[in-house]
Design goal:
This protein has a single domain (37-188), classed as Nuclear Transport Factor 2, Chain: A, CATH 3.10.450.50. Helices cover 35% and strands 25% of the residues. The chain contains six helices and six strands. Strands 1, 2, 3, 4, 5 and 6 form a six-stranded mixed β-sheet that branches. The N and C termini lie far apart (80 Å). Keywords: Membrane, Transmembrane, Transmembrane helix. The chain crosses the membrane at residues 12-32.
């Protein structure tokens, strides 16, 4: 039998190294997924949803909605109703009447990427977004802002978009909005918009 000649300290070092590799291997699975989140059907459906805001058509927002779709505005202390598809479309139309263009844009995550995250456990996309656009001064609601020399209106919020198990449909949207900006817009438009 051959003597490999390892010292006890070399054996301890090798054992510790193997233990560290074994402990770090699962982390690599989460840090380097086999499929980029940007290419998943869930993120594609989410991106389709937020891009549909730029159409200024409420029906476009609900193209991929499930029949029992709901939209909830947060924080809860605002006591705003949860909306099903039709009330959500009506609400969106009032908001769209203010703008001649509107965008929902995911913000930077502070590390050079987009602040958009997908939870496989809940089929939910969470995104920190900037929302708004150019005011339509030719429309009654937009004109009210234009009178105050406001040509663009932007706010930010966090969207929680729950998707179907197959990632193709939007089941619900919970929108945590910048309540101070929402209140300011509500006041400027004399209560015409409820968020």
């Amino acid at each position: 039998m051959s003597d490999l000649g390892f010292t006890p300290s070399e054996i301890r070092f090798a054992t510790a190294t193997l233990a560290a590799i074994a402990a770090l291997a699962p982390i690599a699975y989460y840090l380097y997924p086999s499929q980029s989140q940007d290419s998943t059907k869930y993120l594609q459906t989410f991106n389709h949803f937020i891009n549909s805001y730029s159409t200024l058509r409420p029906q476009a927002l609900t193209t991929n909605a499930t029949r029992d779709f709901t939209h909830t505005s947060l924080p809860a202390e605002l006591n705003l109703p949860t909306r099903s598809i039709q009330p959500f479309r009506e609400h969106a139309q009032v908001v769209f009447d203010i703008f001649k263009d509107f965008q929902v844009v995911p913000q930077d995550d502070g590390h050079g990427g987009k602040a958009v995250h997908f939870s496989r456990d809940t089929n939910t996309v969470v995104a920190h977004c900037k929302m708004g656009g150019k005011v339509d001064k030719d429309h009654e609601l937009g004109a009210q802002l234009a009178e105050s020399h406001i040509t663009e209106w932007w706010t930010e919020g966090v969207l929680f978009v729950k998707l179907s198990k197959d990632g193709q449909r939007v089941e619900s949207v919970r929108e945590f909005m910048h309540s101070k900006k929402a209140e300011e817009l509500h006041i400027r438009l004399h209560g015409a918009v409820e968020f």
